């Protein structure tokens, strides 16, 4: 053969050629599958929002019917976007509360506090009670943690929460998405009787954590993740607390 | 390809051996003890084990085929990198397809699909077999090793899911374990063995499979 397979030219040429071919194949595939992946992400978000206010499994909601069911409970026209002072932002055209990626905004170091969006979803349960659902996002030990907090119609009592994480330690920090931990937040109040924000405290060894109190028992061995949840909840709820306080008075 | 077909029947004795060997006497997991990492990690549920096995099967067959077709072109100085590129691309394809069509399983398998890249079985077959053999035997070799890996994965997963969760592929086998509404075996006081769900049990079950296999086949027992 005329070509010397072991020459530098051929080696470079082969490497470049292979990388280009594989790169094109992967790029085409990724773009082609994008609609499916986006849909899955959207459905996951809808399921996460709904699971803060009810037992999704018991209600018979799965990936297959999530989009229709979500519409039944959550009216996205009622959703508002707050700024960091808890005031409703003037609605920008074409920006819906659902499409705001607060995880991305949280990660974005160049985004100033003023420009961050705080969406609030308003839903109705089966008995037509109003439910307020607040998305939260924060930092765990290894990566992002996020969740949704659902308030009852009194705008201060937590009905339920759904937390999730990307890469927390299995068996320790990863337990934040387990019912036993999420149930601890139920029926606690985010506002005191004067309407001021009650700071949450995630405590160790169950010291003084009473159900319905703002002291929440953390996860043993998952201290940093538990503290991350505490920071995430306090930072976010403080903003919404102002909104609810003003709305009530 | 056509000339190769002419010289040798597609399923000659030698070619058949390429499939059957890794299933029995030369199993990549139990005899060569490769790919143990994923065997421990994703054998809690049979469903996960099946999807993982299919993913590995796809990657190893396609990887073997591509490397075998290119074997006379690949410069030997960069052959490992080329193999790695091929495997990595195939793994990304699998990962993307899973994320698009099986999102729940995809999030459960999470990093382990990505870690197929480092599965020693695949790199081992590419380097040891596909680099030196024609495409058709390479496909068969990939098929055999993929099935050998998958078989062990699924056997381990059946034990772990059945005794750890009382289900198979998510279907309850022993009845309803929920407190207050127990039925079947659970009503008689049976309890799931939580140890089965933990990683050490996968190692122990794999060990037992190796033990059974070696004690039945004298040829596998090493003299020391």
Overall description:
The complex is a heterodimer of chains A (249) and B (224). Chain A has helices spanning 8-53, 66-73, 102-107, 179-182, 223-248, and strands at 80-82, 118-124, 130-139, 144-151, 158-165, 201-203, 215-217. Chain A is an alpha+beta fold and 249 residues long. Chain A folds into 2 domains: 8-73; 76-248, no CATH class. In chain A, the strands form 2 sheets. A 5-stranded antiparallel sheet of chain A has the order 1-2-3-4-5, with helices on both faces. In chain A, strands 6-7 form a two-stranded parallel sheet. In chain A, strand 3 (130-139) and strand 4 (144-151) form a beta hairpin. Chain A starts with 7 loop residues before the first helix and ends with a helix. The mean pLDDT of chain A is 85. Chain B is an all-alpha fold and 224 residues long. A two-stranded antiparallel sheet of chain B has the order 1-2. Chains A and B meet through helix 1 of A and helix 5 of B.
Strands ordered across the widest β-sheet of chain B: 1-2
Q: State the oligomer.
A: heterodimer
Q: Termini distance of chain A?
A: 87 Å
Identify the biggest protein-protein contact and residues per side. Answer: A-B, 20 and 20 residues
Report, as a whole number of angstroms, the end-to-end distance of chain B.
Answer: 45 Å
The number of distinct structural domains of chain A comes to 2
* SS element count, helices of chain B: 10
Q: Find the count of extended strands of chain A (DSSP E, 2+ residues).
A: 7
Q: Please report the number of helical segments of chain A.
A: 5
Strand content of chain B: under 5%
Tell me, briefly, the overall form of chain B.
Answer: globular
**Element-by-element helix/strand order of chain A:** HHEHEEEEHEEH
Structural class estimated from helices and strands of chain A: alpha+beta
Round the mean pLDDT of chain A to the nearest integer and report it.
Answer: 85
Please state the CA-atom Rg of chain A, rounded to the nearest Å. 23 Å
Question: Mind summarizing the main beta sheet of chain B?
Answer: 2 strands, antiparallel
Major sheet of chain A: size, sense and barrel closure?
Answer: 5 strands, antiparallel
Which secondary-structure class do the elements of chain B indicate?
Answer: mainly alpha
Task: Give the helix proportion of chain B (percent range).
Answer: 55-70%
Number of strands of chain B: 2
